[in-house]
Specification:
The structure is a homodimer.
Chain A (H helix, E strand, L loop, with lengths): L1 H14 L15 E10 L6 E5 L4 H17 L19 E7 L11 E5 L4 E7 H14 L1 E2 L4 E10 L5 E7 L7 H13 L4 E5 L1 E2 L2 E2 L8 H6 L7 H12 L4 E8 L4 H6 L32 H14 L7 E5 L6 H4 L2 H9 L5 H17 L4 E5 L12 E4 L11 H8 L3 E4 L11 H5 L12 H4 L2 E8 L9 H5 L2 H10 L7 H17 L6 H10 L6 H7 L2 E3 L21 H4 L5 H15 L3 H25 L9 H18 L7 H10 L8 E3 L2 H10 L1
Parallel strand pairs in A: 2-3, 3-5, 8-9, 8-17, 9-12, 12-13, 13-14, 14-15, 15-16, 16-17
Antiparallel strand pairs in A: 1-7, 4-5, 4-7, 6-7, 10-11, 18-19
Helix pairs in contact in A: 2-3, 4-6, 8-11, 19-22, 21-22, 21-25, 22-23, 23-24, 24-25
């Protein structure tokens, strides 16, 4: 009897047509048309591939089957997809006209048509087809007993051709498995450029057979072998992703100079002049642009590194060289005069121009951070725009300048995900400047954007939670129509995507548990986890003011490492307060007071846990502040008692404290509003 | 004021002497003497190394500092330990007389002395010293605000020299990061042999430069490169662990024969005679022992594989060859006659004997599963005992036989962790047979034991939860005194160790959450998690009866993959019922009825969740059975109502069902007892 009931229920649900808004697709496709029907998934579901695709389509289709099977538990009969046209009558037909080439300005479009008994994917190449498979996975729906796709037609293509993620593997080394799972996540978000920051003051991370000392002396044993790099380039290629390596010169050079001090800019040097840096910040060690040995060394490095990467782009950094060691070295000053280089910028341009032919020899285009753009810089160079308000210039100014001056350019200002800002700041950051005076041709110079994950404060355990799910919003900004920007929809969809990214291997949710169990000293973590839902790590590098509080070897197992931007209960509380202040209905009041009661409860639980968990102690002043304020607010709201406004304001300001445990309360603004309004 | 209170409290706690039983050490040391005092940890804590150790001590000491810092958040000033005698006045002094050699029968002993202002580790070599560091980490204590070690002297050494873990990377490929984190966990449990099962019917997992087709055609792209293997051997060496590779011959040969059918035993063959196996079980494809080409191929393989492994042991499998293809091939039968080999066992011995010189050439001793032991087998071979009651022979019979016949031998029967049995069955399985008639010399032939993790049903996501924490109990059996076998103490200590293993990278806890979120379809997982605390996966391979229900590419994202042996609430409930039946006090009754109420609640929550989670449906019959029975038992116990015994017995037997979702209720026996007793 119950069985019949379930069957009836399921058929009812199957026939209830889903609305477009209920689909949790990211990035949102260019055109989608839902029709009234469903494609039911069974264990007989099979895929067939036709056309002339790159073999990467086989691996991706096999992975698609495994991911779909993992989510549905249907035990698909089809195991590995390895041949063209193996199942001509399969329900899912993928046709690719041609072999997709990894790079920018490729045709990545696809058509996805889901009928009740057939699914067709048509794409110019496998690059579009693998995007279609990701869309199809995101379309999966279910009722109580079965899984299906809604019938639909989707026509999709990217708005920008450069949709990148940079990972800094120098500040904290990020092992191969971290890189691989992030490439998987990038592919799921239809991103196509992985920018690999491989060297910096804190370490040299690439094996060089002709210069083995670089990793022997300047990596603490943490580096990628050449085989591992080739393996990653192949892994990325299989996912339609271009890898752009970065060797950051002439600044950020502590690591390389600790091995080769003779090419540094200090007047006097010995083997101890430079050392691998353990702190964060901008440091003076800089390559000597007047020394022919510098170019000899770089040429040898590029000769060995370039062939490891099949793509046509090479990032040489070029950022944050303040030239202090140049200024204080008479030999370099003389070189400047002799070569009629007026400023250090001119000298850096001289330096960078020497690298262009070294890279061109290997068919690579030079890319660099915006500081490389001076009047004599080659127009072939790609300008990576990163500065903004924090650096005292208008946001992304260099992007417009680059486009106007004939450079291809990529935006990262506004996409600095390590700043720990709310996702909306990244989501609404359009690479195409609004109301700009750029011509169509100039606009075409703007290739897209790149999320940058600097790793001063991110370890292999925590980096995923710093990248995801927020980078999905950046991926959408770079792929979808400029008018797709509804924040409510973003948060809903990102929430689902977050779980799907976990299914793909991203550890942003699971490692939170790992850290919480450590902080709680293996006690119950529920109260700590709840508290983390209203706390966010200190923002814009204020967590590590001066760059010396945290060394590269400091513990990153603290409460601030658990917390993330977009604290989930803060989002809920903000909405509850906003609704309550508009309409003080009983329902709206309860939504607010439930939070307040929860926070009182959290503090008492944290107090109890702290008796056996020293790492909880630093949180107590903050949990006490929010608990104390919540108590007072409850007296006002529920009991309608009068409370002393001075005491209240004092309590509110205590909730704005940023000196406890490197986190801040994400509910401060709403608490303040609530206090003022009552 | 509060600050003073905390200080007072902490000093009180610091002075309260911890009891030996409260220490959660695993494996338990041979001698421990706690004294009345503490060593307080501060950020100034430093380590100094003296003597003549292998450089692995530097990496291990650095890792020790990072792990201790990660747990305490103290921000130790010392970063990387790279030199002898760098801080002569450091609080922790490590002295190693000599450079430790990786292998068996090495001196792994250590002395650890903790005084209130100094810690001394003395060991013959770094091998003992790194064990001491693991013990020290396990000794960490805390009060509410600070961390300390209790003052103590520990003198420790292993009971057996072979303390192994085998991981099957053939059935399901286990990537490098899985292997690395398990090597870390092994080292934490003072285990010293990693047996790497690299080939089987389901795949060939080692790159061979001279036979590239093996991985091209028989690995589905999932294999270890030679560089990766060398990297793992080095990683293991740094942790004092010997790596023993296994290439399983002459049976378990589907993968190799799919590439080289000409060395198979079937009379007629072509390129399609053999195929990589997708199911589980014992299959007929077997190498042809009468064909010189077989030995030529194996010789070439060993010539390439042996140099990758620095250890002196090589496992050639040799198990489960039923000889069916030998029996049906006249050419092979003729070969038997010609060589006066009466049985297939004799023929296999002939085969195995050919391998001994191939391995000896590379300084490797041959090891094989017990089937290789026949009267003509070389006494140099090491016999790996695995059969027992499930195979119709007395448990570990071959171990005694081997010892008596002059073979060195290692026990795995009783250590088959993939059988999903309770930990006590492994813990109480002593490699030294009780009341045996073995002479002292014969006993010395028993090297130790090895946990075996076959991976038919274990993926990279789930394998850690199949290995840990249970293997810690096996590690203790192999290291500690034979009289250390209190089960209550085991469970208490294993619970703490389980969290510490997570801190080291083992994913057995965190991946449970990943799978639960998938099964719940991203809904709240609390009820599912609670239900998993009384369910265990079907045991002794009954989950995959016939070996065909699950293919290598089937989904292992199901509820049975979440569940583990030693279901935690079952342990609690068993104890509660046992106490209640002895003494029906109100307190004891409440402990029982709280469980029953919880299970009624779980079922109703699972019902609600299942409306939007098809993967929950298969659990409902079982959760309903336990809920229904719980309701009736509550009526009896709390309301003292009479219930129909037939109905009750029927409900109890429904709780014994093994046909739902591949799990069984671990509380069945206690429910039955409770029902009978009431």
């Amino acid at each position: 009897m119950k069985y019949i009931f379930i069957l009836l229920l399921s058929s009812i649900l199957v026939n209830a047509q889903i609305k477009t808004e209920a689909l949790h697709l990211m990035p949102w496709p260019q055109k989608i048309n839902l029709t009234d029907g469903n494609f039911a998934l069974t264990k007989n579901f099979k895929v067939n591939i036709t056309g002339n695709p790159n073999p990467r389509i086989f691996a991706r289709t096999t992975q698609f089957l495994r991911r779909l099977d993992g989510r549905t538990g249907l035990f698909f009969e089809q195991g590995f997809v390895t041949k063209i046209n193996e199942f001509p009558t399969a329900q899912l037909q993928i046709n690719c006209v041609q072999n997709g080439k990894i790079g920018i300005n490729q045709d990545e479009s696809y058509q996805l048509e889901i009928k009740s008994d057939k699914i067709n994917i048509n794409a110019s190449s496998d690059l579009g087809a693998i995007h279609a498979l990701e869309t199809l996975l995101q379309l999966l729906q279910n009722n109580s007993t079965s899984y299906y796709f809604p019938t639909a037609t989707i026509s999709d293509f990217p708005r920008f051709t450069w949709r990148g993620l940079m990972i800094d593997a120098a500040r904290h080394f990020q092992p191969i498995d971290v890189i691989k799972r992030n490439l998987d996540a990038m592919a799921a978000m239809k991103m196509n450029v992985f920018h690999w920051h491989l060297t910096d003051d804190q370490g040299w991370r690439i094996e060089l057979k002709n210069h083995p000392k670089l990793t022997q002396l300047a990596s603490d044993g943490q580096y990628y072998t050449q085989e591992e790099i080739k393996n990653i380039v192949h892994y990325a290629d299989e996912r339609g992703i271009l890898v752009v390596p970065e060797i950051d010169v002439p600044g950020h050079a502590s690591a390389i100079l600790s091995v080769y001090p003779e090419v540094g800019s200090r007047i006097k040097f010995d083997q101890n002049t430079y050392a691998v840096e353990r702190n964060s910040g901008i440091f003076t060690p800089t390559l000597d642009p007047s020394n022919p040995k510098t170019y000899q060394l770089l040429s040898e490095i590029f000769d060995e590194v370039c062939p490891l990467f099949s793509g046509n782009y090479f990032h040489i950094g070029g950022d944050e060289n303040e030239g202090k060691d140049w200024d204080s070295n008479p030999k370099i000053q003389e070189f400047k005069k002799k070569n009629k280089l007026e400023t250090n910028h001119d000298l850096q341009t001289y330096f960078t121009m020497q690298l262009i032919p070294m890279l061109k020899k290997h068919n690579k285009t030079l890319m660099g951070w915006e500081e490389i753009m001076t009047k004599n810089m080659s127009k072939e160079a790609i300008i990576h725009s990163w500065k903004g308000i924090n650096e005292g210039v208008p946001a992304g100014q260099s992007l417009t300048t680059a486009a106007k001056n004939g450079y291809k350019t990529v935006l990262s200002n506004g996409f600095y995900i390590d700043l720990m800002l709310g996702v909306e700041s990244h989501y609404l950051n359009d690479p195409m400047p609004k109301n700009s005076t750029l011509s169509a041709e100039e606009k075409a110079q703007i290739l897209g954007g790149e999320a940058t994950m600097w790793s001063e404060l991110a370890t292999p355990t925590t980096i995923d939670s710093r990248i995801w799910p927020r980078t999905a919003a950046i991926a959408e900004r770079l792929w979808s129509d400029e008018n797709v920007k509804d924040l409510k929809s973003l948060f809903q969809r990102m929430n689902t995507i977050s779980f799907q990214l976990e299914g793909l291997g991203i550890t942003h949710i699971s490692n939170k548990g790992v850290l919480l169990r450590n902080i709680s000293n293996y006690q119950n973590t529920a109260a700590l986890e709840d508290f983390s839902k209203i706390c966010e790590p200190l923002k814009v590098y204020s967590r590590n003011a001066g760059g010396t509080e945290y060394k590269t070897y400091s513990p990153f197992t603290l409460f601030a490492d658990v917390c993330t931007p977009d604290a989930v209960d803060a989002l809920g509380f903000n909405e509850a307060v906003s609704n309550y202040l508009k309409n003080k209905s009983t329902e709206n009041q309860i939504l607010v007071t439930d939070y307040l009661k929860k926070w009182i409860d959290i503090h008492s639980k944290l107090m109890a846990l702290s008796a056996n968990a020293p790492l909880i102690q630093p949180l107590l002043p903050l949990s006490k502040s929010v608990s104390d304020l919540s108590e007072q607010l409850l007296l006002k709201i529920e009991k309608k008692q009068a409370v002393n406004p001075n005491i209240m304001n004092d309590l509110v300001e205590k909730c704005n404290a940023k000196n406890h445990a490197d986190v801040e309360l994400a509910v401060y603004n709403s608490l303040k509003k609530l206090n003022s309004a009552e």
